[in-house]
Specification:
Elements (H helix, E strand, L loop, with lengths): L6 H15 L29 H14 L8 H10 L2 E2 L12 E2 L7
Antiparallel strand pairs: 1-2
């Protein structure tokens, strides 16, 4: 078993490993410091046409998972809205307002 006095060091190391391994949530972080909140600028961020499309994609993810997975539409909506940041505006006037459901640390 690990020494309880070393718990903060182990938690910090686990957080650093998680940040380094997840470039979608932490695109600008080198693994040592605080991440930038500009995850909408990441080229890997998924841009949806609108919030409803993002909610449907979140529901589809739960449906495709193995086992008896269930996610209500209300829960998916709350998850998407909590993690959505506005995407950079397009120059195409025919497109609707796109959204980027990436992690926003300010929320």
């Amino acid at each position: 078993a690990r020494n309880a006095d070393d718990a903060p060091r182990h938690v910090r190391a686990a957080c650093r490993r998680r940040i380094r391994s997840n470039r979608l949530l932490f695109p600008d972080d080198g693994g040592g410091g605080a991440s930038s909140s500009s995850s909408a600028s990441s080229s890997r961020a998924k841009i949806y046409e609108n919030v409803d499309a993002a909610i449907e994609a979140r529901l589809d993810t739960a449906r495709r998972m193995p086992g008896d997975q269930y996610l209500s539409a209300e829960a998916a909506r709350d998850m998407v809205l909590r993690a959505t940041v506005p995407a950079t505006p397009t120059t195409d006037p025919s497109s609707s307002s796109p959204t980027d459901p990436s992690f926003d640390p300010s929320t």
